[in-house]
């Protein structure tokens, strides 16, 4: 999946992980694949998070902890003042 990124790393500035949050696996289950792809190198990611209706959804937390460069939608960020502060500081 990420072989094309490695081959064209001088052209690719990030990888957008977009999905319908309530109908697919959570971001934390993609961690092994993300870490394998990065191989310890900078690997800019953009995550679609914070749009779930599930109150137990952790994608917004995970996206921020993974250092996302952008959060797609992020509506639920308004419900988390502590995450808002982290985002503002970045």
Task: Indicate the topology.
Layout: H1 3-7, E1 15-17, H2 31-38, E2 45-49, H3 59-65, E3 71-73, H4 81-89
Parallel strand pairs: 1-2, 2-3
Helix content: 25-40%
How would you describe the shape?
globular
Number of strands: 3
Query: Could you give a short account of the major beta sheet?
Result: 3 strands, parallel
Question: Order of strands across the widest beta sheet?
Answer: 1-2-3
Structural class: alpha/beta
Q: Work out the radius of gyration.
A: 14 Å
Mean pLDDT: 81
Q: What is the number of domains? A: 1
Q: What string gives the helices and strands in order?
A: HEHEHEH
Q: What separation lies between the terminal Cα atoms?
A: 29 Å
Strand content: 5-15%
Outline the low-pLDDT stretches. none
Multimeric organization: single chain
Helix run count: 4
Overview in brief:
Helix content is 32%, strand content 12%. The protein is α/β, with parallel strands linked by helices and 90 residues long.
Plain-language structure description:
The protein is an alpha/beta fold and 90 residues long. The chain has one domain (3-89). Helix content is 32%, strand content 12%. It contains four helices and three strands, in the order H-E-H-E-H-E-H. The chain has a three-stranded parallel sheet with strand order 1-2-3, with helices on one face. Strand 2 (45-49), helix 3 and strand 3 (71-73) form a beta-alpha-beta unit. It is globular, with a radius of gyration of 14 Å. It starts with a helix and ends with a helix. The model has no long low-confidence stretch (mean pLDDT 81).
């Amino acid at each position: 999946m990420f072989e094309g990124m490695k081959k064209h790393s001088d052209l690719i500035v990030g990888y957008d992980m977009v999905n319908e949050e309530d109908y697919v696996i959570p971001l934390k289950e993609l961690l092994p694949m993300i870490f394998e792809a990065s191989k310890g190198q900078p690997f800019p990611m953009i995550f679609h998070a914070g749009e779930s209706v599930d109150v137990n959804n952790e994608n917004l937390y995970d996206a921020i902890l993974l250092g996302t460069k952008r959060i797609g939608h992020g509506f639920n960020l308004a419900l988390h003042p502590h995450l808002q502060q982290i985002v503002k500081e970045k």
